[in-house]
Automatic annotation (TrEMBL):
Example of a GO MF term: protein homodimerization activity
Residues annotated as domain Glycerol-3-phosphate dehydrogenase NAD-dependent C-terminal: 206-357
Pathway membership: Phospholipid metabolism; alpha-glycerophosphate cycle; Lipid metabolism
Assembly behavior: Homodimer.
Protein name per the record: Glycerol-3-phosphate dehydrogenase [NAD(+)]
Signal sequence interval, chain numbering: none
Reactions this protein catalyses: sn-glycerol 3-phosphate + NAD(+) = dihydroxyacetone phosphate + NADH + H(+)
Enzyme Commission numbers on file: 1.1.1.8
Length: 376
C-alpha cells in the first residue's frame, strides 16, 4: 500500500472519514480497498461505512446483515472477504453522517434518488468522488453525473475511471486507474484512499475528459460487439475501435474545450476502451449477441444479464448511445460522429449492425483535429 511519506501525521480527530455509496460488484471491490487502506492509515479513520441498498437474499436473509456478520457481499462479490472495519449501513443519511469523502459507486439511474435523500445531511466541506459510468440526461440536456451530484449536494467532485474490471481488481490483479481532480491538495488523501500495490492511481486535473471517456467507451464497445457478433474479424474490430477512440476525442474537443489529448493515453482513455471492447464485458457481449441472433436488445439483456436484475445491472452502452444521439441531433452534429450515430441506429433497428463498417469506409482524416489538440 502506498501513502505519501512526506504528508504530516494527522491527529485522530482530524483523520478523514470515508463513506462508500453503493455495494454492487465494483462498489464492494472499492469498499474492500478503502477498508483495507483505512486500517492503518495516518490520513483515514478506520471505520468505513458502505451504503447498502437492502435486498432480501433467496434464503430470506438480509444482504446488509450477511455483510456485517460474514464480511462478504455474497450477492455482488462472492468469494472475497471485506475487512471488518467496513460496515454496511442501509440508511443513506446515516451512512454519510460525518463523512469527509463520499465515494459514489452505484448505477447512475439511482443517483438522483440517492442524492435527494442526502440533501442537508452532508458535511459542507465534504468531497465527492464519482466512479459512475455514463451520462445523466434526466433533465433533458446531456450532463456529467458528477455535475448532477455536485448540483444536488453542493460539494466539490472528483471522478475515478479506468480499465478496472471489478472481479480482476477484487482478485488483486494489477490494474491502473485515473482520478480526475482539480484540487492538487487532495491528491495525498485520494491516493491514501484508493491506491494499493495492485491498483496504481494517476491523478489528472482534466476532470471532464476523464469522465466523458468512461461514458463514451461503452458506446464504442457496442460497435466492437457488433463486429464480434457478425464474425467480421479482428482487423475490422480494430478499425472500429480506432474510429471510436477518435470520435471520443472529437466529442471531448467539441463539448469540453480545453481538455488534453494526453488524458486519452491514461487508464481512463485507451486502456479502459481496450478492456471494455476486448475483455468480454456486458456491453460488447450483448451487442455481439444482438448482431448475431436478431433478437431485441431487451430480450438479450433479460436472457444474458439476469432477468429481474436487468434495471440495475443492464448494459449501458445502448442507453448512452441513445442519450448521446439525442444530444448530437440537438446540436446538428450527428454527421461528425458517424460511429456513435451508427451504434444508436443499429440498436434501435433503423440500420443493420454492420453499418458501423460503413463508418470505417467513409471515415474522414482526423489528423488535423488530433494535431490541433496536441498543441493545446
Ligand atoms: N463492475 C465493474 O467492473 C465496474 C467497473 C468500473 C465502473 N463501474 C461502474 O460502477 C457503478 C456501479 O457498478 P457496480 O458494478 O458496483 O453495480 P452492480 O451493477 O453490480 O450492482 C447494482 C447495485 O445497484 C443497487 N441497487 C439496485 N436497486 C437500487 C435502487 N433502487 N437504489 C439504489 N441502489 C440500487 C444494488 O443493490 C447493487 O448494489 C456503475 O456506474 C458502473 O458502470 C463498474
Amino acid at each position: 500500500r502506498h501513502s505519501s511519506p512526506c504528508y504530516p501525521a494527522m491527529k485522530p480527530d482530524r483523520k478523514k472519514r470515508v463513506c462508500v455509496l453503493g455495494s454492487g460488484n465494483w462498489g464492494t471491490v472499492i469498499a474492500k480497498i478503502v477498508g483495507s487502506n483505512s486500517l492503518h492509515s495516518e490520513l483515514l479513520q478506520e471505520r468505513v461505512s458502505m451504503y447498502v441498498y437492502e435486498e432480501e437474499l433467496e434464503d430470506g436473509r438480509k444482504l446488509s446483515e450477511v455483510i456485517n456478520e460474514h464480511h462478504e457481499n455474497v450477492k455482488y462479490l462472492p468469494g472475497h472477504k471485506l475487512p471488518p472495519n467496513v460496515v454496511a449501513v442501509t440508511d443513506a443519511a446515516e451512512a454519510v453522517r460525518g463523512a469527509d469523502v463520499l465515494v459514489f459507486v452505484l448505477p447512475r439511474q439511482f443517483v438522483r434518488t440517492l442524492c435527494a435523500t442526502l440533501v442537508g445531511q452532508i458535511k459542507p466541506t465534504a468531497v465527492g468522488v464519482s466512479l459512475i459510468k455514463g451520462f445523466d440526461s434526466e433533465d433533458g440536456p446531456l450532463d456529467l453525473v458528477s455535475n448532477t451530484i455536485a448540483r444536488y449536494l453542493k460539494i466539490r467532485m472528483c471522478v475515478l475511471m479506468g480499465a478496472n474490471n471489478a472481479n480482476e481488481v477484487a482478485a488483486e490483479k494489477v490494474a491502473e486507474t485515473t482520478i480526475g481532480c482539480k484540487d492538487k491538495r487532495l491528491v495525498p488523501l485520494l491516493k491514501a484512499i484508493f491506491q494499493t500495490d495492485y491498483l496504481k492511481v494517476s491523478v489528472n486535473d482534466d476532470v471532464e475528459a476523464v469522465e466523458v471517456c468512461g461514458a463514451l467507451k461503452n458506446v464504442v464497445a457496442c460497435a466492437a460487439g457488433f463486429v464480434d457478433g457478425l464474425e467480421l474479424g479482428s482487423n475490422a474490430k480494430a478499425a472500429v475501435v480506432r474510429l471510436g477512440l477518435l470520435e471520443m476525442v472529437r466529442f471531448v474537443d467539441s463539448f469540453y474545450p480545453g481538455s488534453r489529448l494526453g488524458t486519452f493515453f491514461q487508464s481512463c482513455g485507451v486502456a479502459d476502451l481496450m478492456t471494455t471492447c476486448y475483455g468480454g464485458q456486458r456491453d460488447s457481449r450483448v451487442a455481439a449477441a444482438f448482431a448475431k441472433s436478431g433478437k431485441t436488445l431487451a430480450e438479450l439483456e433479460e436472457e444474458m444479464l439476469g432477468g429481474k436484475k436487468l434495471q440495475a445491472r443492464g448494459a449501458i452502452g445502448t442507453r448512452t448511445a441513445f442519450e448521446v444521439n439525442r444530444f448530437l441531433k440537438e446540436n446538428k452534429m450527428e454527421e461528425q460522429f458517424p460511429l456513435l450515430t451508427a451504434v444508436h441506429l443499429a440498436a434501435t433497428g433503423v440500420a443493420p449492425p454492420n453499418a458501423v463498417l460503413q463508418c470505417v469506409r467513409d471515415a474522414p482524416d482526423y489528423t488535423p483535429m488530433v494535431r490541433n489538440l496536441l498543441v493545446m
